[in-house]
Amino acid sequence: MLSKRMGNKNGPSNTEALDAEDNCTGLYMFSKKEIKKAISSWKYSKVRVVYRTAGKIYTGILPSGQLVAIKKLKGERMELFHREVDTHCRVRHPNIVSLVGACSGSGRKRYLVYEYCSNGNLVQQLAGSDHVLSWEERVKILRGIALALRFLHSHPDGSIIHTGIKAKNIQLTENMDPKLSNFWSTQVLSRQGIPALAGRPSCVVDIHAFGILALQVLSGTTGDWKSAPGDTIVRMAKEVVRGEREPAEIKDSLLNIGQDDLCDMESILRVAVLCLTETQEGCPTMEEVFEVVNEVWRKMHSRHLHHEISQVAGSPLTPCGSIDDRSN
């Protein structure tokens, strides 16, 4: 049974569950009374229910005033409950949604309490929001998720594979900081990079999914990567890499960017296509992917700073150099 401070937690006997650390620092075990009070404290909680694969999500307010997202799981989801808790006990990162606490109690209902991300998920921002993501916000999102995956894949206990990298599993904070969520299908590799159990996926699964995600963010498309729209994005991106199309043809039509940003976009597009390489040998690592996206982020901010300084000094801007093609 899970203890109040997680020091005595007995995980599931199923060998596919991740082993929890002996001391899960900072994770609070809520009572069901506390959970109900948190949900009822949010006056719009009943209309803020979101149906997900793994359960219902409610908005709640803790006694401290902190807004939280509360996921309710039923008995048949117990393995998911343990897997989420076990994974969050070992991973803490600015670009991973924080698990504030959990509630096991008695009966068949279990609850997971997460930090609240006020801008919803990436699908909502790309498809259902009045706000059009700026170029800077899109790069920020891709950089944050690449950073989170680099952290997971290089974890000291062995590479952690999310296996569910997609737009709906990326939550966005008030400042549009991306947070990777939904760790119920996570797998772990040995330190040598060999799957801990036969048949488990490799890091390439996440890298391939990141490539699809990057193309969706660049193009503003939200369809699943297995659908026809996803296939179209991939085909068009490969044609850009081969010089058969212009990068602007894959750009989100709602996004207004200049030539320098278009060059940056092509750099990200090229590494996204590399991520879709079918063989593990030809696929870049998340470290290499992050370097490309981070370089775009750095050059973009360098241009912004240059522009601000030039405006203050009253001097004209000098042309920005071409983007280093890190995908070659």
Automatic annotation (TrEMBL):
The keyword Transferase applies. Residues 33-328 form the Protein kinase domain. One of its GO terms (cellular component) is plasma membrane. Coiled coil: none annotated. GO terms for molecular function: ATP binding; protein kinase activity. InterPro entries: Kinase-like_dom_sf, Prot_kinase_dom, Ser-Thr/Tyr_kinase_cat_dom. Gene3D superfamilies: Phosphorylase Kinase, domain 1, Transferase(Phosphotransferase) domain 1. It comes from the Eukaryota. Keywords: ATP-binding, Kinase, Nucleotide-binding, Receptor, Transferase. PANTHER family: OS01G0253100 PROTEIN, PROTEIN KINASE DOMAIN-CONTAINING PROTEIN. This is Leucine-rich repeat receptor protein kinase EXS. It comes from Anthurium amnicola. The lineage of its organism: Eukaryota, Viridiplantae, Streptophyta, Embryophyta, Tracheophyta. The gene is EXS_5.
